[in-house]
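Blackboard transcription, Thursday session:
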Amino acid sequence: MNNENAIEVRNMSKRFKVDYDKAHTLKDKLLFWRTSHVEVHEVLKNINMDIKKGETVALIGTNGSGKSTLLKLMTKIIFPNEGTIETNGKLTSLLELGAGFHQDFTGRENIYFNASIFGLTRKEIDARIQDIIDFSELGEFIDHPVRTYSSGMYMRLAFSVAINVDAEILLIDEILAVGDQHFQEKCYRKLKELKDSDKTIVIVTHSLDVVKDLCDRAVWIYKGELKLDGDPIYVIDEYLKQVALDHKEEKQKAIAEGKHRFKCAVFIDAPRDFVTVKKEDKVLFSQGWQLSDHDDAVLKVTVDNVEVDNLDRVNRLDVYDAYREVYAGDMDPDTIGWKTNIDLTKLESGKHRLMVQCLEPNGNIMAEKSIQFVLE
Amino acid sequence: MHIFKDIYDYRELLKTNVKKDIRGKYKGSFLGILWSFINPLLQVVVYWIVFPYLMRKGAGGDNYLVYLITGLIPWTFFLTTVSSGTTSIKANAGIIKKVYFPREILLISQVVSGLVNFFISCIIIIVFCFAFGFGISIQILMLPVVAFIQALLILGIILILSSLNAYVQDLEYIVSFLLTMGMYATPVVYDLSLLDGAGVLGKIIRMNPLTIIVMSYRDIFMYHVWPSMKQLGVVFILALVILVIGYIVFKKLEKGFAEEL
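(Written on the board underneath:)
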């Protein structure tokens, strides 16, 4: 193994046996040892990669692409069927937080249990325990039994232990979903700190902004194969293109089979609900956006069931970015937004209803949103 | 040698596991750790009441009660550690699927906590020895040696059984049956001299390594003679052989634990 590398993967393949009726008892094994219905599913095919010491690498890919399996293989929880995975240096995985927590023991005692699973000695834990407690922000609760914790507190404690273990290689699976916004930001800062202190970090995540911001390199796993490996911005772009393509293909297949349920979202940015407007303003500016994966979706804006005719479509890149993965391949950023000026002169004083609908060509309503405004 | 380094690196895990085993076992129960005394004592009482009636004369010569205790407590060490060891991989499926650590730690900590429990229980033996006028003698120095050999034997056995149990999950029921049988294949409640006319069966029971271990404990506590070093040596070598085989089997099977469980 090359000394500069933290992780080396060579010609590695992993297969899972998908056993429909898993024979776990002796009787089953004896009776069904020939007839057992086993399907072999190749999750990872011939993966080769090096991760250098000090690199922060993201594994990206859709659900079921095998990226979490690859992380598990690096952790040595499971082992490859072919090829090798070698690691160099103390390794911690944050795959599953709170492993080995014992409900009846206090937070403090559980820090010792949990940290010892990561291979720390008593002395090392003693040296870190204050940092861990401070990071978890549990305060006096640290001496209460873990079973009295809320799920958020539990996760915070678990994360604090895992991140303070001081491993040389950190494997992280979708963990930036711990706790509230404040704690997440703190975790994120800690990760950046670890990155700057020359730790090797491998992250599996779906939040591509994190990848762009944090990682030096992105590895895209596509259907069990290593598709692309390089600078995050380029890899993510290619990845999203492929997602869009697959998405479209899948959708067309589903439509052909008549199984597809179209998705749609509509939104009204302005005016706000229950707003009061004055008649002398003459017009009420209104805007929002609409998304759909139906090619012929129709947008209909009505005021008290009378359709508004002076509707303009506008560019909404912000919405496009937010929905890039969900509506991949179905969006044109230039026509996402809509805006209109509602003519107030023809309306009576009193309550009115502004409604936005997204319709299929046959008039079927896919999504709608409405607000009230009061004219004075 | 890699294994020793691994275990040394994870010594804190071993310690906390043992602590959790001993303290966590009775946590929340009213009598707490006292149960590890009460349990074998209650068993002793049952056998002490029933067995003298079943046998023509009380086994063990003068004092059947002390004879029972010196056999039953080492047997309980073997029984509880083997049965909990067999299921320990399955019972820890949660962490095995999630974190990497040397899996053998789980089994070693089972044996160590069993050993600690056994040494605590030896206090009962000694109390009874004094109460019935046996006292103690210099032979007590052999106690750690015999206990160590027994612990090695147990570790070897559970390395094999626990890893097989992850694949064939009804092994634990077979094991619990074999253990029940094993108690009668070991002179725990009866005296070896009762088997003089038993032919092959008697020979098998005399060859049972646990017979030798239990008899050695009795030599130490009751008869105050040095146990047979030759026989103990044979058991020790046997324990080492099982341990090596067990370790090889375990290392081979452990790779599939996370997927099989």
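Lecturer's comment: The interface with chain A takes residues 9-13, 15-16, 20, 24, 27-28, 94-101, 168-171, 174, 255-256, 258-259 of chain B (CB under 8 Å).
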